[in-house]
Design goal:
Distance between the termini: 80 Å
Order of helices and strands: HH
Structural class: mainly alpha
Radius of gyration: 24 Å
Shape: flat
Helix content: 40-55%
Length: about 80
Protein backbone atom coordinates (compact mmCIF):
# COMPACT_ATOMS: atom_id res chain seq x y z
CA UNK A 1 0.00 0.00 0.00
CA UNK A 2 1.33 3.43 -0.93
CA UNK A 3 1.67 6.28 1.52
CA UNK A 4 -0.76 9.13 0.72
CA UNK A 5 2.15 11.61 0.83
CA UNK A 6 4.31 9.97 -1.84
CA UNK A 7 2.93 12.13 -4.68
CA UNK A 8 3.12 15.46 -2.86
CA UNK A 9 5.35 18.13 -4.31
CA UNK A 10 7.28 20.20 -1.80
CA UNK A 11 6.49 23.87 -2.32
CA UNK A 12 8.32 26.91 -1.06
CA UNK A 13 6.48 29.55 0.97
CA UNK A 14 6.48 31.83 -2.09
CA UNK A 15 4.96 29.11 -4.25
CA UNK A 16 2.28 28.43 -1.65
CA UNK A 17 1.46 32.13 -1.38
CA UNK A 18 1.23 32.40 -5.16
CA UNK A 19 -1.06 29.36 -5.22
CA UNK A 20 -3.32 30.96 -2.59
CA UNK A 21 -3.48 34.13 -4.67
CA UNK A 22 -4.43 32.16 -7.80
CA UNK A 23 -7.03 30.17 -5.87
CA UNK A 24 -8.57 33.33 -4.39
CA UNK A 25 -8.72 35.04 -7.80
CA UNK A 26 -10.27 31.99 -9.41
CA UNK A 27 -12.83 31.56 -6.63
CA UNK A 28 -13.75 35.24 -6.77
CA UNK A 29 -14.21 35.14 -10.55
CA UNK A 30 -16.37 32.02 -10.28
CA UNK A 31 -18.54 33.54 -7.55
CA UNK A 32 -19.10 36.73 -9.57
CA UNK A 33 -19.78 34.70 -12.73
CA UNK A 34 -22.46 32.75 -10.87
CA UNK A 35 -24.24 35.86 -9.60
CA UNK A 36 -22.83 36.22 -6.11
CA UNK A 37 -22.70 39.79 -4.84
CA UNK A 38 -19.90 41.54 -2.96
CA UNK A 39 -21.99 40.98 0.18
CA UNK A 40 -21.94 37.23 -0.47
CA UNK A 41 -18.16 37.33 -0.89
CA UNK A 42 -17.84 39.17 2.43
CA UNK A 43 -20.06 36.53 4.06
CA UNK A 44 -17.88 33.76 2.61
CA UNK A 45 -14.76 35.51 3.88
CA UNK A 46 -16.31 35.86 7.34
CA UNK A 47 -17.18 32.17 7.39
CA UNK A 48 -13.61 31.24 6.40
CA UNK A 49 -12.18 33.46 9.15
CA UNK A 50 -14.56 31.91 11.69
CA UNK A 51 -13.44 28.43 10.65
CA UNK A 52 -9.80 29.47 10.93
CA UNK A 53 -10.36 31.03 14.33
CA UNK A 54 -12.10 27.90 15.62
CA UNK A 55 -9.33 25.71 14.24
CA UNK A 56 -6.61 27.82 15.86
CA UNK A 57 -8.40 27.86 19.20
CA UNK A 58 -8.85 24.09 19.22
CA UNK A 59 -5.22 23.53 18.24
CA UNK A 60 -3.86 25.81 20.97
CA UNK A 61 -2.10 23.97 23.73
CA UNK A 62 -3.04 24.63 27.36
CA UNK A 63 0.35 26.31 27.80
CA UNK A 64 -0.72 28.93 25.25
CA UNK A 65 -4.00 29.71 26.99
CA UNK A 66 -4.07 33.06 28.79
CA UNK A 67 -3.54 32.81 32.51
CA UNK A 68 -6.30 34.56 34.48
CA UNK A 69 -5.02 37.36 36.68
CA UNK A 70 -6.42 37.15 40.21
CA UNK A 71 -8.51 40.15 41.18
CA UNK A 72 -8.13 41.37 44.71
CA UNK A 73 -11.51 41.57 46.37
CA UNK A 74 -10.36 42.90 49.75
CA UNK A 75 -12.34 46.16 50.04
CA UNK A 76 -10.15 47.43 52.89
CA UNK A 77 -7.25 47.88 50.46
CA UNK A 78 -8.15 51.07 48.59
CA UNK A 79 -4.64 51.75 47.39
CA UNK A 80 -4.39 55.04 49.26
CA UNK A 81 -2.16 55.89 52.17
CA UNK A 82 -3.02 57.82 55.12
Amino acid sequence: MHSPNTNLVVQTANEKNRGISILASSLFRQLVAHGYTPSHVVNLTTELLDLLSTSLRSAASPAMEPVPIPVRTDSSDTGTTG
